[in-house]
Design a protein that fits this description.
The protein is an alpha+beta fold. It folds into two domains: 102 residues, Immunoglobulin-like (Sandwich), CATH 2.60.40.10; 121 residues, TonB-dependent receptor, plug domain (Ferric Hydroxamate Uptake Protein, Chain A, domain 1, Beta Complex). Helix content is 21%, strand content 27%. The protein has five helices and 14 strands. The strands form four sheets. The protein has a five-stranded mixed β-sheet with strand order 8-13-14-11-12. It has a four-stranded antiparallel β-sheet with strand order 3-2-5-6, with no helix packed on it. A three-stranded mixed β-sheet has the order 4-1-7, with no helix packed on it. It is rod-shaped, with a radius of gyration of 41 Å.
């Protein structure tokens, strides 16, 4: 027996209409806002669940703090829980809606500072800081940045800076055309005529410096054996090592 063509067409049309109709359920829409600052909270996770914790649906607030959540609770009371980094997880009281209700909510959530592991941030030391620590490790006679700072602004030349800083182991000339010598050699010893060299920012300059004392960061005095070990035959009778403020000055940036 053949079916009626008209009946068949009606049945197909009905099926299509049923498939296209939206699912029944309750719609909750609104915004998530900070209770502390009143700002809208983006990327907050909202979960609808029953009293036993069964999840009915979830969504996430957009960049304006807005959300829309459809729930098919079938008349059963349910709850909304909001979670987000930096806020207290918060759950609403029981919500009971009719099958086709649409409601608007403004959820205000207390913010909570995020406490992470302690992170220690250490910057790279300047060239001068590295060189100063290296001089300390080598055991050189050092005049620290703090000691140099006390005298460099009023010193007329680096000889004054040496003298006022307390370089008592040196014979410091009063005239700029004479070199600095070590007092380790007794009078009459021919080596007593040998001049110490000046080393500025790692460069051996010779026995007569051309240097503004105000540019000095720290100084170190090297014996003959120390200077030979460090600079070879360029400094056989000792050295006055200076690092200038151009390579970093924590006291006066």
């Amino acid at each position: 027996m053949r079916s009626s063509p008209r009946l068949t067409t009606f049945a197909v049309t009905l099926a299509v209409l049923l498939a296209a109709s939206p699912a029944r359920g309750q719609v909750i829409r609104g915004v998530v806002r900070s209770q502390t600052t009143a700002r809208l909270l983006e990327r907050a996770r909202l979960t609808a669940h029953d009293s036993g914790g069964r999840v009915m649906n979830e969504t996430t607030s957009n960049d304006r703090g807005e959300f829309t959540l459809r729930v098919d609770a079938r008349g059963v009371p349910f709850f909304l829980t909001v979670r987000r980094i930096g806020v207290e997880p918060t759950t609403t009281g029981a919500i009971t809606l009719a099958p086709d209700d649409t409601v608007d909510y403004e959820l205000t959530i207390p913010e909570r500072p995020v406490v992470g592991d302690t992170v220690r941030v250490m910057g790279m030391p300047s060239v001068n800081e590295s060189k100063y620590q290296e001089a300390v490790r080598r055991g050189w006679k050092i005049f620290s940045p703090a000691e140099v700072e006390k005298h460099r602004e009023r010193a007329n030349n680096v000889y004054d800076l040496l003298r006022w800083s307390g370089a008592s182991s040196l014979v410091i000339p009063s005239r700029p055309n004479e070199c600095v010598r070590s007092m380790r050699y007794v009078p009459g010893d021919r080596r007593n005529e040998r001049c110490m060299v000046w080393v500025v920012d790692g460069q051996v300059l010779g026995p007569f410096p051309v240097l503004n004392p105000r540019d000095t960061y720290f100084m170190a005095i090297l014996t003959g054996s120390e200077s030979v070990l460090q600079y070879g035959d360029k400094a056989p009778w000792g050295a006055i090592v200076i690092y200038t403020r151009m390579n970093g000055d924590r006291i006066h940036p």
